[in-house]
Each structure stands twice: as structure tokens, then as C-alpha cells.
Amino acid sequence: MKILSSEITPYKTYLNRRKFIKGSLASALLATVSSSAFANHNNNSSIYNKYLNDSDKLNSYEEITTYNNFYEFGTHKKHPHLNSGNFKPRPWTIKIDGLVKKPQTFDLEKILSNVTIEDRVYRLRCVEAWSMVIPWQGFQLSELINMAEPLSSAKYVQFVTVFRPEEMPGQQKRTIIWPYREGLRMDEAMNPLTILATGLYGHEMPNQNGAPIRLVVPWKYGFKSIKSIVEIRFLDTQPETSWETLAPWEYGFYANVNPNVNHPRWSQGTERRIGEFKRRETLMFNGYEEEVAHLYKDLDLTKFY
Amino acid sequence: MFSTRNFNRSKPVLFILILFPSLLWAYQFVTGNLGVNPIEKLMDELGLMALRLIIITLMITSLSNIKPLKSIVVFRRMIGLFAFYYVCLHFSTYIVLDHFLDIQFIIQDIIKRPFITFGFISFLFLIPLAITSTNKMIKRLGFKVWKKIHYLIYPVAILASMHFYVLVRADKTEPVIYMGIIILLLLHRIFKRLTRPQLAQ
Predict the structure, then answer these.
(1) CA–CA separation, A69 and A59 (whole Å)
(2) DSSP assignment, residue B94?
(3) B200 within some domain
(4) Contact by Cβ (8 Å): A184, A283
(5) Is B177 part of any domain?
(6) Is the ipTM above a cut-off of 0.90?
(7) What is the tens place of the pLDDT at every residue in A78-99?
(8) Residues B170, A75: C-beta atoms closer than 8 Å
(9) Chain A residues close to B40, C-beta within 8 Å
(10) Considering the domain boundaries, does residue A303 fall inside one?
(11) Quick check: is B40 in a domain?
């Protein structure tokens, strides 16, 4: 999807947090066509601005859509932007299976007509020690989980990315084992911070950011936020995840942002916020400690990194 | 055509060609044209350039064994010094731009992270090579001692390619290609030694 600069101009209101809050949110949301048009909009601004700190400024649309890790389209940061033009995010279905009342396949449109799309501005912290602030549109994962009706024996949720090597040139090479897989513990998945995002900056989700629907778990390293999801599976055991399978000594299942647990390649104590010159301190749970620390009170985070 | 004289004449051109990328990146950095994460980009470009130049100096030695190409060895010192130049820029970008002279953090980083350890040792080994690169130094040390010092280029190349290999998260094709070339060049030298033992004396 090509975005003309003229199309982005109306979203200038997003560039500054204060303006963003004051500005007419409804008009920005109404400009969103397609996916979100099927969903109900929630215009209550207090829902999203409480997740930002004072020093957080939104990253630009260009930064968010030209600097991506999405190995399905290539391993360089610019590859997803350059190589995702042939990807077709419509029509789209999501298969729900595993420990659920009734395994079924949902049309994305059907899901969207049953949920409430909200604006959520989140910090995104990559394991490579860079970060951004991104205005997502999406809905709480818990809403979909409730639709899926998992059995009480379901303790984990696994997510699977689409496998289409003819549309995703990165998948023609075995850099990681395709399809990409991720997972969450059930309580993490049900946490109100965890969303399935269908857009950013009021646009439909760009291909390079995980069209048409992706996970966003803001207190975990970016690789947990799996893109272009086609399958959600409910399990009673901890599922395998892609990066953990590839290098378990580097990437754990939990992958919580934690400045005190170092990665063999990157110090996690600091990060470079894209657009800023000096590094900043990395915050515990990426600054969402209040919302999620209780999930891990019985867990040794140096062991379960 | 491949005479020492012609090669010596083309040196200024080569000098400008190899210098040019650093000027371009500096210009792009200052004008904000190095992409979304300019410091990372600058560091990557400088480091990759340095590694490639190190490999080229090794190649020159091997290629100069082919009779008609004998004279290309006149380029070796300049390219080697340029490798050092790019490593210095790479390292100072890391220290100044990336970590803002936070020396304590940098020391921890060098000790704790294997890929930075490899890169740092490689840089240290390059220093004596650069210092002893002048004709005067060769004379003062004697060719034999000088040559021994310059065997350091092998650990330099191996460590530099490992530095790159460990850094890449997935799809290690490019670093593996560089390592392959280095291994081939080393094998060629070993082979040469084994097949011509008398000449060494």
C-alpha cells in the first residue's frame, strides 16, 4: 500500500501528544476506511492517553512504516517497506482451534463487527535496543478470546503468522522456521493492555507492519507482537515460539522488557528512541509495570527471561 | 598495463574512491539522510567497509602471486591504512554517537558482549599494523620482525568477521561468505608454505 504524503497530512494532529488529545479524534477515526469501518469506534480518549509518559512523543508515520523487523519480507529494516507491495491482506480469516468449545474459522470482517476499535498509543521496545511510540487502532485480545470460548484447561495461547512465500519473499529463504509462531500465557493474553491491532495512525494496518491484523503486547520485546495472524490455538502447555526455538539462550518465552536482564548481544539497560540522539534508560516492563508486574510476582525473571 | 608504474600513477584515484564513502556518509548523517536510525546505519556502513578492506588486503597478497598481477601489491599499504581509518571511524561512532562517551558502560559492553569483544580486540591488533606501516619503520625493525608483526592481520580478519557473524540475528549468508573468503586465503598461504619449504630458507 502506497501512502501519498498528502494523505498523511491530516494525521499531523498525531505528531504531538497534547494536540492529539485535544484535537478532534472523531474526525481522524472517521477518515479510517475499510477495516475499522466494520467495527464500533470508541471515542473515549482517556482510554489511551493514560498509557503514555510525559516525555513520550509519537514517532512519525514514515519512521513507523520504513523501519521494521518483519523477516517474512527480508532481514533488513527497510525490506518490509520495499518488499511487501504484493502482499494481499484481504480477504482474511483466522482459524481458532485447540482447547476451545468449538474450533472454527472466523472472517476478519465478522470479528471486527463484534469488537470495539480503540486508539492505543504504546511504546514499542525492540530487543535490539531501539524503541518507538506508535498510535495503534485495535481491540483487546480478550474480546476475541471470549468469542473463541476456550475450555478451562487452556493455559496458553499460540499465534501463527500466514505462510505465503509467493507474496512474502523472505519466506523463500529459511532464515527462521516458517511460519512464525508466538505465544502468551492465558493471563497475559487476557490483560487489558494486550491488543490485536488493525491499523495505525488511522490507516489500515500497512503490509509491512503486519496487515491486516497483528498482536501488540507493549510490555514485551517487539518480536512477541506477531504480525499477520492466521491461526490462534489454545493449549495446556507452553507453546514453542520462533525466536526461542532459534536461539533459546538469547530469547525466552516471556521476553518481558527488563533492563536488568542482559541479552548476549545488546545491553537492555538503555535504548535509542527512534528520532532521538541520546539513548534513554529502558523502563521495567517498558514502563507498564503498574499494569503487568503482578502477573510475574512468583516468577524469577532472570531465569524466565 | 599492470606495471608498478601504472599502478602507482592510479593511486590518487583509488585514494579518492576509497575515501569517498566516508565523506558521503558524513554528509548524509549531518543532513539527516541516513534513514530512520542514522547512528546505527553509520556504524554498520563504516564497519562493513572496514571488514571488506581488510579482506581486500589479504586478497592482494594472494593475487600478487599471479605473475601478471604481481604489481598490485603496491596498493596494499594504502588499502590497509584505509581499513584502519574506517575501523577508527566505526569505533568512534560507537563511543561518541552511540554511547555518548559513557566509558563505564562501554567497558562493560566490551567485556560482556562477545561480538563487541571480538571487534575490540580486532581493533587493538590493527593499531601496531598501522603504526609500523611506514618505510622507515620497516627499516628500523628489519623486514623479518616487521613481517612477524604483520601476521596480526590474520587474527584481525578472523575476529572482524566473527564480530559481524555474531551480530547478525538470522540469515548469516553475508558474514559466512566473508569468513569463507578469509579461510580460503589463509589456506592458500598455508599451501604455499608447505609446497615451497626450501625457498623459505
Answers:
(1) 16
(2) I
(3) no
(4) no
(5) yes
(6) no
(7) 999 999 999 999 999 999 999 9
(8) yes
(9) 130, 272
(10) no
(11) yes
- Tally of domains in chain A: 1
Say what the pLDDT of residue A16 is: 37
Q: How far is CA B132 from CA A163, A246, B92, B105, B135, in A?
A: 55, 44, 22, 32, 8
Q: Are A272 and B37 inside 8 Å of each other by CB?
A: yes
Can you give the residue range of the structural domain that contains B124?
A: 4-195
What distance in Å separates the CA atoms of residue A76 and residue A83, rounded to the nearest whole number?
11
How many structural domains compose chain B? 1
Q: Could you list the residue range(s) of the whole structural domain that residue A18 is in?
A: 9-296
Strand ranges (DSSP E) for chain B?
none
- Closest CB to B171: pick one of A75, A266, A275: A75
Rounded distance, CA A108 to CA A93, Å?
Answer: 5
Read off the pLDDT band of A3 (50, 70, 90). very low
Cβ–Cβ gap B108/A130 under 8 Å = no
Specify whether the CB–CB gap between B153 and B133 falls below 8 A. no
In a domain, B201, yes or no: no
Position A302 in a domain: no
Q: Chain B contact for A246, CB < 8 A?
A: yes
Residue of A73, A174, A278 for testing the chain B interface, max B β-carbons within 10 Å: A278
Residue A158 domain-assigned?
yes
Reply yes or no on whether the pLDDT at A41 is more than 70: no
Residue A66 exposed, middle or buried by CB count within 10 Å (0-12, 13-18, 19+): middle
**Residue A254 within any structural domain of the chain:** yes
Interface contact flag, A278 B100, Cβ < 8 Å = yes
pTM of the entire predicted model: 0.86
Shortest Cα–Cα distance, A209 to chain B (Å):
15
